[in-house]
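We treat protein structure as text, and this decision shapes the records that our systems exchange. Below, we set out a record of this kind in full and without editing:

***
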Amino acid sequence: MGNNNFQTALDILQNIFGYDNFREQQAEIISDVIANKDCFVLIPTGGGKSLCFQIPALLREGTAIVVSPLIALMQDQVDSLKANGVRAEYYNSSLNADSAEQVLKRLHLGELDLLYVSPERLLNKTFKQQLLGLPISLFAIDEAHCISQWGHDFRPEYAQIGELRKDFASVPFIALTATADQTTRQDILHKLQLVNPQTHITSFDRPNIRYIVLEKKQPAKQLINFLEARDAEHESGIIYCLSRKRVAEVALILQNGGYKAKAYHAGLDAETRQIVQRQFIRDEINIVVATVAFGMGIDKPDVRFVVHYDLPKNIEGYYQETGRAGRDGLSSEALLLFGTQDIMTAKYFIGNITDEEQKRIETFKLSCMVDFAEAVTCRRSVLLNYFGEQHDKKCGNCDVCLNPPTFFDAKVAAQKVLSCVYRLADSNGHGFGIKYVIDILRGMDNEKIRHNQHQKISTYGIGNEFSADEWASIVRQLIHLGYLYQDIQNFSVLKLTTKAGEMLKGQIELELARPRNKATRTGKTKKISGIQKAQKEDLTDAQLDIFEELRELRKDIADSEDKPAYQIFGDASLVEMAMQLPTNDTEFLKINGVAEVKLEKYGGEFLDLLKTL
């Protein structure tokens, strides 16, 4: 980015959005879009994806068209942009005829910097024809994983967006997602027909989230224990269940326990769902118990915990759902209750899929989810390596790291596995899955091995020191640590990574965890305020009191303006105010999340309060 463009983009970041500096790769992405380049952007939830197209939209001539999958998501982002003084609107089925006409009028008059639309609306022939005659600054396809059948939320209408590329050849396209493995990424690029796209992938790591997995045993009691430990009566959280019936049951348990909780699922009428969502984002209720239908349209930054009462179907969905906690960067928790019955239920639903290829994909993804739940290595490493980000260090903020298993010297065992995978691969790179590799290591005698004559290779029978289950744990750990990967497009066969060569040559020492029979952790933790946990330097009691006073003021203002409290200021901004105690406009502007428009609207009231505390 040229110096002038960078300074202008930085000015917009500071003066409109209220942030001092760009996050990882944001400046590079913005530079590429300004330079008219197509981009693929993969940034985790809460990592600042939206700014990557919102700032170029304010710098480039014309209107940016943003494709978004949910009405609630459009409304929330547009409301947040308007709160910062940006000219933005949405155009979807929620508008009445008069409102829709007004939006189109503003579009044609050049009065909009950003227009959010659904994929169905974008592909409407009449609407597309209107766009062809207007100056369009860019197309941003949000939640781009919806394009791919390999992704966790495939939507057929999304797959047609690529047809627009040839009609708007001179307009940059930017595809954005928070969750996509390597296969899904390739599919997105292909389906969108991006031209020489610049690829920007930041770290998937969300270090502020603590990952906890418990063996499911009396789950209602486990949930209550978890909530009591977190002081959850004063925090926002989401609890995910797989069925509508389970959602209703859990919501009733929490209501009877005195929690301000509501149920949300597709079986409720639209008005009820809208009321629950509105109450949640405006802090009128603390907890939503929901199916996965809830959350994608929520831009609420202060969700402090996410609980999966049942096993998710895949890691992508789990990662996206847990990523709805702690979007503001403050400390949050993700609890997963895992039982064998969950696996059987998930397999039953997969068994009903008629498309054999899709069935294979879903089976693989479920297997990876089970591997995560059963992992005896750092859970953050399992997640990051699944998305292709090599990570072999203990994070110190998951249940495995906080309550580590016993370890053993696994260098030789790892070399046996890697050597076996290497020798089983033919000249075309074909290989075999986990079970077959273990059978070779243990010297099993079966028809498939005899047919392939693999009883003759040097690694046949060299692994009798471990049982099949123990070898399975070792192989899973090597996958989690990035020495092996499973090729989903090739029937999940095991393949070596570039990192495996160092292990085979004996250049790396390795300790692996001995398999645990069952998880025994209870999930009980020291009861402590989520805000205190959020900072490296804990807020003092006096600062916590100030934070609560600021939060009350924020709620009063939000109620008077009929908008969510976080659209006034986020929790992270209030924490910073409580710590920095600004006394004038200049000091107030230094608080992250405070920009010129919000200073003018709210600065006086907050500064007046701070001066009295």
